[in-house]
Amino acid sequence: MTRVVALLVLAVLPAAAAQEPPAPDPAGIEFFEQRIRPVLVERCYSCHSATAEKLKGNLRLDTRDGSLKGGDLGPSVVPGDPDRSLLVKAVRFTDDDLKMPPKKKLPPEQIADLEAWVKRGAPDPRAGAAKTGVDPARVQAHWAFQPLKESPLGSVDAFIRAKLVAKGLQPSPPADRRTLIRRVTVDLLGVPPSAGEIDAFVADPVADAYEKLVDRLLASPHYGERWGRHWLDVARYADTKGYVYSDRDEARFAHSWAYRDWVVRAFNEDLPFDRFLMLQIAADRMVTGDDKHDLAAMGFLTLGPRFLQNIHDIIDDRLDTLGRGMMGLTISCARCHDHKFDPIPTRDYYSLYGVFASSTERLVPVAEVPETPEGEAFSVELKKRQDALETLFAKKRDELLERLRRQTPMYLAAVTEVEKLHTEEFYSFIHGDDVNPVVARRWQLYLFETKKTFNPIWAPWTVFQSMTDQERGEKWSPWLEANRDKLNPHVAAALAGSPVASMKDLAARYGKLLKDAPADDAGKALREVLHGATSPIALPKGSISELEWFFEEGSRVEVAKAFRVIEQWIIDSRGSPPYADILEDKPQLHNPRVFRRGNPANKAEEVPRQFIGFLSGPGRRPFEDGSGRLELAKAVASPGNPLTARVWVNRVWLNHFGRGLVATPSDFGLRSEAPSHPELLDFLARRLIAGGWSTKSLHRLILLSETYRQSSDDRAAARAADPENRLLWRANRRRLDWEAMRDSFLTCSGRLDPEIGGRPVPFTSPKRTLYGYVDRLNIPGMLRAFDFASVDQSSPQRHQTTVPQQALFLMNSPFMLDQARGVAKRAGGEPDRVRAVYRIVLGRDPSDEELRLGNAFL
What we know:
By secondary structure, the protein is mainly alpha-helical. Helix 18 packs across helix 19 (437-450). Mean pLDDT is 89; it is low at 1-23 and 128-132.
């Protein structure tokens, strides 16, 4: 009986779609732009590009054709075959005669990226010389960058029918009621209706029975679970941080589930979508004491991968998720160079980078500690662990500050050659007597800020640094004499007498002066440089992930472990309230500087924190409110932003029809295809905004249309005219995704736990799949087999594959056998067990032939 039920459950799944011919690989192009081009620019172009002083080996790697053609040794890249590609062979360092770059081997992750890129066919958008900009005429004409247009048509069906008629087609007749209730219930709730619900709807004689059905489903608390899952794909949600440290404890977020539950609640309450977006960017600036649970919304930004704690990669991931997820813009492509396709210059990327660089993380409770024995025990133990961290941190901080003050001459000397220092990725190699590049660059930033006005202490440094050797010989002493009265007297005295020989000599004099500052008033000003709140060595008030870069490896491990036991207590204690990982503004804010070629060790001009230029118009102004996150949130969710409403409408349409009106849901840039129905897209976007950004109203508008209610039956003539059904002459047959499929099996077996929310559970739990524990570094095989969304980056839609593991799981897995036993148990008490099984699994009675075969089997 269990095997029969398992096969019956398979009948719920539609047949696989026919294989389509291979198409261009947008994901591959994006992989190239984010992972490959920066490496080529930084490590290869100096010898192998049109701008190289001398082209080595007749090899050019700055064009696609040059990479494929290769140089004196043959083809550099053989698409699909890393082992035959000389580029891959060179970076592997396995051949003593071919090692590139010659001075230093690439990091393992960059070598792996190059191998993966070649293996997937070496997708490469470059042609000829590198592009230097985007045609303004194309930007102005691009459909997604234009304001939302009005239309005389007033319904979904009017737009669809107009396109069909123009093609000589007609829509399909309505689906029968049994099909319709199953379709809309799975769409909105992610589980099938019961046989009783189907029978009641089929027999309901009232004219508005379907409208009432839609309203009932939208009011269900399980609606938020289904549609919250769609958004969690966009937010690259997981319960762990990924690669944080190679040798430390499991990197689990304290309460990631607080964000997941907030998303579910937001959909159930029909939170206006503009506020839904804004809270995920700037909830810390928007919430009051009464609604502090909304702080959990910031998990959208903070629950991403941690990239071995590389803050630049963390910020880049946040910008990428925000850009692609909310506005359909690939912002991160401008990290190392001006965007090659869209009007996003590198300056704009770093303007937004500065917003998040001016924000710091903090773990905060979003509810009160329960007044229970468990809650009291939680508070007592939490304070004990927090006190231990504060004691340890104070000790390590004092030791560090004392050392950094002693090392002031060394750091001032390091500033003169700061571009030669390692970037932050190499912090684990820093020991107490080494120059810490993080501290050196804080000194660099501090000195950069002192240039903006005449500074009595640092003006000589600024002037001397700006002079050539000849100017120093001619102008330095006169300048010093002319400005002596404006300078701090101790600085003037230290620079008098013997001439300053070089920047290193100047650094040594300043270093001694700051270490041994006198006790008078002028000396107090000098003392502030090393002891004040704005000191370059003052540790910022922020998360451990920021502070640990200041410590050497031993102290870093101790502090991280002490913080980790606090997180673990929050995770383990049943008396803990939910916590949120939020962003908040740093006390000290700085405008960012552009990183040349994306390298933080090679800084260029300063840029203001502000929104993207082409979306701001001529009146763009720098952000003025703190870090600028709240102003950024308002700009993203503005009705005047032509992208945000279009992107959300398209996502909703995608999840009702299986394909968006725009085929690239997270890329509305110049590379995207035009919408199949641009007027309809704008009509829905305008209705969304006019309706108070209500997603449920948008659902109703779509679900009540004749287009949605069409039959999915095939028609040969229509298929010949529109084989992909882009014009929607019928309803698309769609697969169940993994969550809907597993939850449907649990529903049929009668074992689905309907409890909403709470801590993550193992995937063996009968709770809805939404609540399963997702480990970034260990995604269960069954999730991967059924095309679960990537948790490493924002996922616009689920892939669809047909692989043997799917069939093997459905026929042989303990989970499936257990659900089949559940169905058999539910049907066992019925007089007609075969009929009962069909009604439980498929929601209908068997045909006469099915009944005969079932009884014969039994």
